[in-house]
Amino acid sequence: MKTAQDALTAQMLEWIAARPHPYSEVIDVWKTSCPRLSVWEDACIEGLVGCHPVRNGTVFLTDKGKCFLDQHPTY
User: pTM here?
Assistant: First the structure.
């Protein structure tokens, strides 16, 4: 069953996969103060995303994030 949280996570992962985004941009767009809607924080905890510290903090999908996206298409 696809949940609203899964749909938002898939949307964020697609956005990240579309082009390189620096960490600061990802936080500006996806960080939330709502404890029930913590898409960015949950993706980090689940290991769906990572950050290249030497590439200006570029955020990327991990293999686990790519699998999640394959299993939760947004179309």
Answer: 0.84
pLDDT in tens, the chain (75 residues): 578 788 889 999 999 999 989 998 998 888 777 667 688 889 999 999 999 887 678 999 999 999 999 998 776
Contacts (Cβ under 8 Å, ≥6 apart) of 10: 68, 69, 72, 73, 74
4-71 CATH pick, 2.60.40.1120, 3.40.250.10, 3.60.15.10, 1.10.10.10:
1.10.10.10
Cα distances (angstroms) measured from residue 64 to each of 13, 32, 35, 47, 60: 11, 23, 23, 7, 11
